[in-house]
Amino acid sequence: MNKYVDAFINAFNGTVDWTWKSILFEVPWYTNYFWGLIAISLFVWVLEMVFPWRKEQSVFRKDFWLDGFYMFFNFFIFSIAISGFYKLLQVGFSDLGITDKSLALIDPSSWSMWLQLIVFFIILDFVQWFTHTLLHKFSFLWKFHKVHHSVKEMGFAAHLRYHWMENIFYKPLKTFAVMTLFGFEPEQAYIVHFIAITIGHFNHSNIKITWGPLKYIINNPVMHLYHHSFVLPEGRYGVNFGISLSLWDYIFKTNYIPEDSGTIKLGFPGDDKFPTDFVGQNTYGFKKEQN
């Protein structure tokens, strides 16, 4: 039992220490997610101001500061809070003889760094796409995902407005996929994570970008805006589920972009009764009665 307690405490303290060192620039710049997130956010925000898609939308759009809080809460505060529990799972699996290598179907350690990163990126993105479809398909998951879809004006910070329970759904599936298919996370995985953050920020931004012919591979703001549409095609529980890649939506026929004016209504039926504050939004999914 002491082993588990020590693992929990060490993981929690280690995450706190790493976050604090990141703030103080005491970690390598290329792994500094704290200032990296700020730099990416400022970059995309400036582009929103210079090249606004919806020109009538304020620079400090509706819920701008709420979304800003969500960014740091989900990316850092919750990560600190949950780090000990993830470590307990790792120790528990280890005691059962289950390690990163024991489940791996392939061994990419001999591959080039860039091939490892590309395959790692594709695997993670597909798992996230698949999990995202589940968040829309099943009502008990949709209750939590509603937080992300309560955005009424789109901007870069809306990327990280989501219920902390989504981390509970996403991370185990991502970890299991990597363990099963890959065996380990590449040493330079921070490159993949920063690329994913940047694409996610752009997808939620007030900028009209489609990436030209690459739109069939890379997700974009025009495509993702329709994922947040108040009105969905009849008989469908969602469209455009892609996270970084649009590829999966075109393969599985969940793509939908009827026009590109950017003026569609966002949200979901009944969102007028959905809480507008952080606490209310994060307790909503646990209530028995839902609208």
- Give the structural class: mainly alpha
Order of helices and strands: HHHHHHHHHHH
Number of helices: 11
- The pLDDT mean sits at 89
Stretches where pLDDT is under 50 for at least 5 consecutive residues are none
| Number of DSSP-assigned strands | 0
What does this molecule look like?
The protein is mainly α. Helix content is 56%, strand content 0%. The protein is built from eleven helices and no strands. Helix 5 (113-137) packs across helix 7 (165-181) and helix 5 crosses helix 8 (189-203). The N and C termini lie far apart (43 Å). The mean pLDDT is 89.
What secondary-structure arrangement, pairings included, does this model have?
Blueprint: H1 2-23, H2 33-50, H3 64-95, H4 100-103, H5 113-137, H6 139-149, H7 165-181, H8 189-203, H9 221-227, H10 247-251, H11 278-284
Helix pairs in contact: 1-3, 2-8, 5-6, 5-7, 5-8
